[in-house]
């Protein structure tokens, strides 16, 4: 997706809030190399990372020049060139149920210098990013979080989780089917293009995954800084199907002491087919002289226990609320996904920041398509033709998912909920009935949460397998 980072105006409210604190809110110019390097220093310091080496800086500059990058500057600081706060953002697709994608706005690199903490800088940046998301035409803003207590106040909620999957190699006897294809070792650099194509297909079949940008693939394959110890330790494998077509890849490392079996660890296993997913797992589990296998940011719904004789060989550890989302345009967001059941549901949304506030009517047809009616009279219908991308169309109700065609057998039901709760249920990873039991939402009529459970259900558990 081509994106002009300066195409979205600088949010005047964020700028004014920071100016009142004596701080400059600046959009960085990708041509200003010096400013970018100072910004990268602040970002690494903010996340407690070591300073990057020269190759790492090159990589970061490349990645950041494709984003909208903001810095907050204190001209009275000892080194005024280094920002006291950072944030970056870019438009990207987010996979939603039904093999579809919604226009999203990814927010990353949120740091505030310890010298300037708790003065409302992060708040100004976060509110600015919601305005940017809306101005860029996104329906959903999203981020991955270091702590679960920071972003709820801006209307974000956890929508897709992930876990570390640990397998005891000695107990991992495989009982799954034989795959018709085969696994090959490949050089990470040679995998670059194929990895992008496979990732596109893997992302499309998993709600909660976001479109991969070229820098994240470089990071996965160790190409961001190929001479680093971490990159040189990586081994890459590719699964080709019975026709020789690449359908999956994994990148792993083995951590070990001399003369002792080690642990095989991986951050990336991407599969466009179930065969590829199974066979890559099998390959990783059958590498010899290994005590165990540890996969990071895996799905909490991994089929692996069903592929082994001893399901207790598999442990799901560190289950985390990995993807947090914030709905900034409910009509577009709700129309972008497919629904698990037909029905009519009213959503009365409370949103102190305004973006999602109002009364919405969601009409889902039996084929999963929806028509959404918003408070401003804006309507939107899921488009039947294009499965992904910018496929939605704002228009009056079409006949096939109009109120007439939606299940009339179901009496209108509804929920009263906040923007956070809407975000939590949006991808189908959190059941509305769980939020009802927690008293986080209310039913407009009995049975509404049960209907909402069925409508918002996703055919696949939402999952995000990268940090951003
Ligand atoms: C998290 C961080 C960005 C907060 O910056 P900040 O400028 O101090 O935050 P603000 O002063 O704008 O605080 C805004 C609100 O968030 C709250 N808050 C800030 N940091 C918080 C934290 N770590 N945990 C819980 N609440 C937090 C504040 O109490 C304040 O609440 P209120 O507005 O409801 O009263 C900063 O601590 C940081 O850089 N941390 C390290 C890097 C990091 O974790 N980044 C997040 C990446 S996902």
UniProtKB/TrEMBL annotation:
Keywords, sorted A to Z: Acyltransferase, Transferase
Biased composition, class Basic and acidic residues, residue ranges: 385-402
GO biological process terms, semicolon-separated: aminoglycoside antibiotic catabolic process
InterPro entries: Acetyltransf_17, Acetyltransferase_Eis, Acyl_CoA_acyltransferase, Eis_dom, GNAT_dom, NAcTrfase_Eis, SCP2_sterol-bd_dom_sf
Positions of region (Disordered): 371-410
Superkingdom to which the source organism belongs: Bacteria
Gene3D superfamilies: 3.40.630.30, SCP2 sterol-binding domain
Active-site residues from the entry: 151, 468
Keyword Acyltransferase: yes
A Pfam family that the UniProt record links to this protein: Acetyltransf_9
Residues that, per the record, bind acetyl-CoA: 110-112, 118-123, 146-147
PROSITE patterns, per database record: GNAT (PS51186)
N-acetyltransferase domain boundaries: 23-180
Molecular-function GO terms, alphabetical: aminoglycoside N-acetyltransferase activity
Record's subunit section: Homohexamer; trimer of dimers.
Family: Belongs to the acetyltransferase Eis family.
Protein name (database record): GNAT family N-acetyltransferase
Organism encoding this protein: Agromyces tardus
Taxonomic lineage from the root: Bacteria, Bacillati, Actinomycetota, Actinomycetes, Micrococcales
């Amino acid at each position: 997706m081509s994106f002009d980072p300066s195409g979205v105006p600088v949010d005047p409210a964020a700028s004014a809030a920071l100016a009142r604190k004596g701080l400059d809110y600046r959009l960085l110019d990708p041509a200003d190399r010096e400013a970018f390097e100072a910004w990268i220093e602040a970002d690494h310091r903010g996340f407690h990372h070591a300073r990057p080496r020269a190759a790492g800086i090159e990589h970061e500059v490349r990645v950041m020049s494709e984003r909208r990058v903001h810095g907050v500057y204190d001209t009275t600081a000892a080194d005024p060139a280094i920002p006291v706060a950072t944030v970056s953002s870019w438009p990207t697709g987010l996979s939603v149920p039904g093999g579809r994608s919604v226009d999203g706005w990814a927010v990353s690199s949120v740091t505030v210098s310890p010298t300037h903490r708790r003065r409302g800088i992060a708040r100004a940046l976060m509110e600015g990013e919601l305005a940017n998301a809306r101005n860029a035409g996104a329906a959903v803003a999203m981020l991955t979080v270091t702590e679960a207590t920071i972003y709820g106040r801006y209307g974000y909620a956890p929508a897709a989780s992930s876990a570390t999957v640990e397998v005891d190699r000695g107990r991992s006897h495989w009982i799954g089917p034989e795959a018709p294809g085969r696994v090959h070792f490949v050089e990470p650099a040679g995998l670059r293009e194929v990895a992008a194509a496979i990732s596109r297909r893997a992302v499309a079949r998993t709600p909660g995954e976001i479109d991969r940008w070229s820098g994240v693939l470089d990071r996965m394959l160790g190409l961001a800084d190929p001479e680093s110890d971490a990159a040189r330790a990586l081994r890459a494998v590719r699964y080709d199907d019975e026709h020789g077509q690449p359908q999956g890849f994994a990148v792993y490392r083995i951590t070990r002491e001399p003369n002792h079996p080690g642990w095989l660890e991986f951050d990336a296993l991407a599969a466009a087919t179930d065969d590829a997913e199974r066979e890559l797992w099998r390959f990783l589990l059958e590498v010899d002289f290994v005590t165990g296998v540890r996969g990071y940011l895996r799905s909490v719904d991994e089929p692996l226990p069903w592929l082994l004789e001893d399901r207790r060989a598999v442990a799901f550890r560190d289950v985390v609320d990995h993807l947090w989302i914030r709905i900034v345009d409910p009509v577009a967001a709700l129309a972008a996904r497919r629904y698990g059941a037909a029905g009519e549901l009213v959503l009365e949304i409370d949103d102190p920041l305004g973006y999602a506030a109002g009364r919405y009517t969601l009409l889902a047809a039996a084929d999963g398509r929806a028509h959404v009616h918003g408070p401003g009279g804006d309507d939107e219908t899921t488009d039947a033709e294009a499965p992904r991308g910018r496929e939605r169309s704002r228009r009056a109700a079409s006949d096939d998912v109009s109120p007439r065609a939606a299940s009339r057998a179901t009496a209108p039901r509804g929920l009263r909920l906040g923007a956070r709760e809407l975000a939590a249920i949006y991808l189908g990873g959190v059941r509305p009935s769980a939020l009802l039991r927690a008293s986080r939402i209310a039913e407009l009529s009995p049975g509404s949460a049960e209907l909402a459970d069925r409508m918002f259900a996703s055919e696949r558990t939402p999952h995000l397998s990268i940090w951003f």
